[in-house]
Amino acid sequence: MPSPRSPLSRLFTVLLAGVLAGLVVALAALPGNLVGGLVTKSALRAYVDLPDALRTPAQPQRSYLYANDGKTLITTFYDVNRTDVPLAEIAPVMRQAVVAAEDRRFYSHSGADLRGIARALVANVTGGGTEQGGSTLTMQYVRNVLKTDPTRTAEERQAATEQTVGRKLQEIRYATALEKTLSKDEILNRYLNIAYFGSGAYGVAAAAQRYFGKAPADLTLGEAALLAGLVQSPDEYSPIDGDKEKALARRAYVLDSMADTGAITAQQAAAAKAEKVTLHPTAQPNGCTAVAQGHDDWGFFCDYLRQWWLTQPAFGNTVKEREQALRRGGYRVVTTLDPQVQKTAQEQATDVYGYNNKRALPIAAVEPGTGRVLAMAVNRHYSLADNPAGQANRPNTVNPLISGGASVDGYQAGSTFKLFTMLAALEAGKPLSTGFDAPAKLPTRYSSDAEGNCDGNWCPANANPEWMDGYRMMWDGFGRSVNTYFVWLAEQVGEDKVVEMAQRLGITFRADSDAAFAKNDAENWGAFTLGVAATTPLDLANAYATVAAEGTYCTPLPVVSVTAGNGEKVNVGQPSCKKVLDTDVARAATDAARCPVGQQSAYGQCNGGTATAVDRIVGRPVAGKTGSSEQNATETFVGFTPQVAVAGIAANPDDSTDSVGAAVQARVIDAVARVIKTAVKGQPVKDFTAPSGELVGNPQRPEPRPTPTPTPEERQQPGDPRQQSDNGFPSDLRRWLQGRRG
Q: Where do the Penicillin-binding protein transpeptidase domain residues begin and end (predicted)?
């Protein structure tokens, strides 16, 4: 209930009424043509000083985020729950109802209704009935614009509602000026799009959705009358948050007014009064933690898009301005999120680990040649809800576990980094047939006093000497993931060239120690090729997508198009791509990457792989690489076709010393392969283009040397030699790294 009016408030009303009544009486005593002339001249003077917000409305509106089909709503962003709609999309009964309720003479006055003002003054002074304002719809519109104009200061917005003679006269002048420049229908449309209807709903579109769960074009007579009745006292009359009986009484008043104006018949009014109010309260989601019900996994993508948005100059000069634009600009954002690919990725991530598992499988999918991010999934709820004690990031978190940033540096991706060594070697002119007799352990030039060193030098080892040792070229060195071959190859090329290659393909060093190593000592980062730097599934997928796109790197992109509230396209959403690799180099690396997944290179040089199940699952040309960090702390697989690249990394986001174990690698491979299968479903089968002979070289292998009988300790990978797990780091690697970085 509104509070009783104080004596001072009543006294002010009397004084204000006296002043305005005097003006009304004085105007009424003048000849009609003289009054018209005064009003016209005043209106013309007022139009010169008309605020920009009244000339071109810039009211806050809700922004909508959709999936890549342009139909599936992800979420909305807003400070004010409001969306503009044209008059043609508002039910005629709604237009008639608000005119009958608020300004019956709307279509006959010129902005200010002197008779209405006088009638309201008399009612307010005598205290009879409900306090009246005498404001026309046009005057109300002026007040609503000025009190919500985001370009005005807080003091200016507050002044727009002050009970002063000066403010009221200015409101009349502005309203009269608007009536000289805008049609009645345009004023009515603007009014309906800005009026507050209670329960957080600004404008008729938000109100129709909030109360009845429908579009304003679909409102019935009874519904329209109820909404129109809310405008006078939105919070008091709201049937959701206020007094429902008062809302019904106000509805009856509106219906009677509509009958008095001839908009409806008395019989129609009576029938609408008899209708029960059937509400379907619908709250609009707001932000990434309010994504569509049952799809809280979309929140991670939403957050990635929001972070991208805050870096785009098209939405403002500062982060604050860009954030405000997202929440107030009324944008329609069609994102790159593919609902089907996302669904499969989420199913696979949660199949490997449940939501409450301390370990996680973040998965990212990227489109080669555009950088468009198709999916970002992980076995966590994107939510601010509390977690059980001791569970920092499970089952709820808003940390960017898939894309990195904030407190998330990423995860070691193991031998997937061998791709960067191979690319650097190919770029340096070394062909795929570059051979080396890979030993079980390789003494290097890097000093080390860790246990297991070779005469004071670091000497990495192969995880499975029986299957990995021997003469290798890039094809089977990559297919079998031979550590000693790739450490040797990195030494031939220069470790700094390998690090630079990774950065060129978008690998970001978020961990301070990795960034320092890359900047200050890259030429001595011998273990880099074994994947000791932290990365994310998104970075890794996009790096491999660069190879899939034959050397074209595209910045990861979360949007397809952005349309402003005025219907104009914003110049963002176009892929930002550049050539970073020679086409033939990328094709050669792809040819070798056919080996790990159980397919054959164009030159028939594959002879074993660590992820041969991928060929069977995907069923079309595919390439990729497995990776395991030391002691199987993480397990990774990244695969690609010409149309998609997908990466998944099994890890414990809260404890890098917790080993996920070698057994999960097969499940990670399976999960990523099934996401690839979904992403390419229905697309034409595309093959990879074979590299030129120049980068193939002479793939002639020497006679194989006798294979020594491995010791029991060396037999780490029993089983089918055609598919071996890539779990191998030398046991002294972490100690060696700590020594190098300490």
A: 364-663
CA distance linking residue 623 with residue 548, whole number of Å? 9
pLDDT value, residue 150: 67
**Spatial distance between the Cα atoms of 447 and 443, rounded to a whole number of angstroms:** 10
Q: Are residues 243 and 294 in the same domain?
A: no
Cα angle for residues 717, 720, 721 (degrees, 5° grid)? 75
- Say if residues 602 and 691 touch (Cβ distance below 8 Å): yes
**DSSP structure string for 553-581:** EE--B-EEEEE-TTSPBPS--S--EEE-S
Output DSSP code: residue 285: P
Q: Please write the tens of the pLDDT for every residue from 404-445.
A: 988 899 999 999 999 999 999 999 999 999 999 999 999 998
Tell me how many domains the chain contains: 3
Place of tokens 């099994």: 650
**pLDDT, tens digit, 9 for 90 and up, residues 460-519:** 999 999 999 999 999 999 999 999 999 999 999 999 999 999 999 999 999 999 999 999
CB 465 within 8 A of CB 731: no
What does the pLDDT average to over 172-188?
Answer: 93
Identify whether 628 is part of a domain. yes
CB count within 10 Å of CB 13 equals 17
Nearest-angstrom CA–CA distance, 307 and 323:
10
Question: In a 3-state reduction of DSSP, which class is residue 265?
Answer: coil
Could you say which of 274, 309, 344 is where a domain stops?
Answer: 274
What are the backbone angles phi and psi of residue 24, rounded to the nearest 5°? -65, -45
Residue 552's H or E segment, with its range, is: strand 552-554
pTM of the entire predicted model: 0.77
Q: What angle separates helix 184-194 from helix 137-148, to the nearest 10 degrees?
A: 50
Question: What H or E segment, with its residue span, contains residue 497?
Answer: helix 495-504
Q: Where are the alpha helices (DSSP H) in 85-220?
A: 92-102, 114-126, 137-148, 154-159, 165-181, 184-194, 204-212
SS3 691: coil
Write down how long the chain is: 742
Angstrom distance (rounded) from CA 493 to CA 657? 32
Domain shared by 261 and 296, yes or no: no
294/166 same-domain check:
no
For residue 519, the number of C-alpha atoms closer than 13 Å in the C-beta half-sphere is: 9
Is the domain of 88 the same as that of 72?
no
Residue 18 lies in a domain: no
Rounded Cα gap, residues 279 and 240, in angstroms: 8
Residue 709: half-sphere exposure toward Cβ, Cα within 13 Å: 1
Predicted confidence (pLDDT) at residue 29 exceeds the cutoff of 60: no
* CA-to-CA separations, 353 to 206, 221, 339, in angstroms, rounded: 40, 53, 21
Nearest residue to 611 via CA among 636, 591, 630: 636
CATH number reported for the structural domain that contains residue 688 in this entry: 3.40.710.10
The pair phi, psi for residue 78, each rounded to 5°, is -165, 150
Q: Which residue has the tokens 């099934």?
A: 674
Residues 296, 159 within the same domain: no
What does the radius of gyration of the chain's CA atoms come to, in whole angstroms? 35
Residue-wise pLDDT for 327-358, tens only, equals 888 999 999 999 999 999 999 999 999 999 99
Distance of CA 649 to the CA centre of its chain: 21
DSSP notation for 667-683? HHHHHHHHHHHHHHTTS
Q: Residue 637 pairs with which residues in a beta bridge?
A: 626, 648
User: Angle at Cα 300 formed by Cα 297 and Cα 304, nearest 5°?
Assistant: 155
End position of a domain, from candidates 696, 711, 727: 696
Task: Flag whether pLDDT at 540 surpasses 80.
Answer: yes
What domain range includes position 596?
A: 396-696
Within 13 Å of residue 687, how many CA atoms lie on the same side as its CB?
Answer: 7
Contact in structure between 644 and 322 (CB atoms under 8 Å): no
SS3 740: helix
Q: Sign (positive/negative) of CA torsion 448, 452, 456, 461? A: negative
d(CA 399, CA 402): 9
